[in-house]
Design brief:
Distance between the termini: 65 Å
Largest sheet: 9 strands, mixed
Order of helices and strands: HHEHEHEHEEHEHEHEHHHHHHHE
CATH class of the largest domain: Alpha Beta
Number of helices: 15
Structural class: alpha/beta
CATH topology of the largest domain: Spore Coat Polysaccharide Biosynthesis Protein SpsA, Chain A
Strand order of the largest sheet: 5-8-6-7-4-1-2-3-9
Helix content: 40-55%
CATH superfamily of the largest domain: Spore Coat Polysaccharide Biosynthesis Protein SpsA, Chain A
Oligomer: single chain
Length: 378
């Protein structure tokens, strides 16, 4: 029992020491401030799927933001929506500098990204999701660092305040880590809902990849930096609503998929590999070790009243965390417990379903134009 508690404490402490590790890994070498020309041409790729309630406001916002650029285009790619989005998007087909593309069947985000990048006219590209609300001036701010030659991608920052103005401690902690990473030299993974990239730095994303934003970021790190703009704010839905079990399982499956792909890991230098494991994977050991403590307490409940009290407390906290009580979503500790419980259950789920033993699909870094036979464009 004592050994398990000590191991768990060490794992948690190591994870919490990550920001200090970033400070130690920071290079004394001054940043390369060699500039190219100022950016005045841009392609924005908006990925759409069953988002009719978001699209009108998001598209009009992006059109306003792009008005500051001389050369621009907004490419909207709809992934065979079935909620009536097609009729709404058709209204934008005759607007200057806007292209609307309809997939003939649902293909997923990697296909949309590959299709968008292959058809983008300009070197500076922004990928944008449909659901989130973006801060004013975000397009101009997000591309500004790309004028430096050593920067390949720039991430926006998901606000720790959601659309309903509730604060997420988990999101705040993640933002703190990403800001420290950016200051230390390079971000490990961009925030997928909104980020900018140099087209030359794009690597074709295999269609089976789950965490496309992390995959692409790791590919960029072999030659360029990835940085965070914390003044480019992205407001999303409530964190506890977004990270249900299905989404948590998908995220964990994506992390394990990256870990299984040795070709990606071999491209990282020692610093970036250390950051990836320390930030993304070490924390996955926390729910495992906490579960071992819980099981050990359960085995000792008949030995002393203290074990019964602690075991009952843990059981009550777990039940309170995983039940869908909307009115308790403001409880920060509940959300942390809930996420860790979901991680552990998802890990067991993936082991049972044989995820670890799935064969890898062949991957290519070549940017290929997807088959446009099932795609309708303006």
């Amino acid at each position: 029992m004592i050994i398990i508690i000590v191991i768990t404490s060490v794992i948690i402490l190591l994870y919490l020491l990550y920001p200090f590790g970033l400070t130690m890994m920071a290079s004394d070498k001054p940043p390369d401030e060699t500039k190219a020309e100022e950016i005045n041409s841009i392609s924005v790729i908006l990925l759409s799927y069953n988002g009719m309630q978001y699209l009108n406001e998001k598209i009009n916002f992006l059109i306003r933001e792009l008005s500051a650029f001389d050369l621009k285009e907004l490419i909207i790619i709809d992934d065979h929506s079935i909620d009536g989005s097609g009729k709404l998007l058709a209204n934008f087909r005759n607007i200057e500098n806007v292209r609307v593309v309809f997939n003939g069947k649902h293909r997923g985000i990697p296909f949309l990204m590959n299709l968008g990048i292959a058809n983008a006219k300009y070197e500076t590209v922004i990928f944008c999701d449909q659901r989130q609300v973006l801060s004013e001036g975000i397009v101009n701010k997000i591309v500004e660092p790309l004028k430096y030659k050593d920067i390949g991608a720039v991430s926006g920052c998901i606000s720790d305040m959601d659309k309903e103005n509730h604060c997420s401690v988990i999101r705040r902690h993640e933002n703190f880590l990403k800001l420290k990473e950016s200051s230390a030299g390079s971000l490990i993974g961009v925030y997928g809902p909104f980020y900018a990239i140099k087209k030359q730095c794009y690597s074709r994303i295999p269609e089976n990849i789950i965490l496309d934003d992390l995959y692409l970021s790791l590919k960029i790190l072999k030659s360029k930096k990835v940085v965070l703009r914390d003044d480019c704010q992205i407001s999303d839905d409530c964190f506890s609503d977004l990270y249900d079990y299905k989404r948590t399982r998908r995220y964990l499956a994506g992390l394990l998929q990256i870990l299984r792909d040795t070709s990606i890991l071999k491209e990282l230098n020692l610093k970036h590999l250390t950051m990836l494991i320390w930030h993304k994977y070490l924390r996955l050991l926390i729910p495992v070790s906490l579960f071992l403590i819980y099981i050990t307490l359960g085995l000792k409940v008949f030995q002393a009243i203290e074990f019964q009290i602690f075991y009952s407390f843990f059981t009550f906290a777990i039940i309170l965390a995983i039940l869908p009580f909307k009115f308790l979503s403001f409880l920060k500790l509940r959300n942390i417990i809930r996420l860790n419980v979901f991680y552990f259950i998802a890990l067991i789920d993936l082991i049972i379903t044989g995820f670890f033993f799935q064969k890898k699909e062949p991957q290519s870094n070549e940017i290929m134009l997807p088959d446009l036979g099932n795609v309708k464009t303006k």
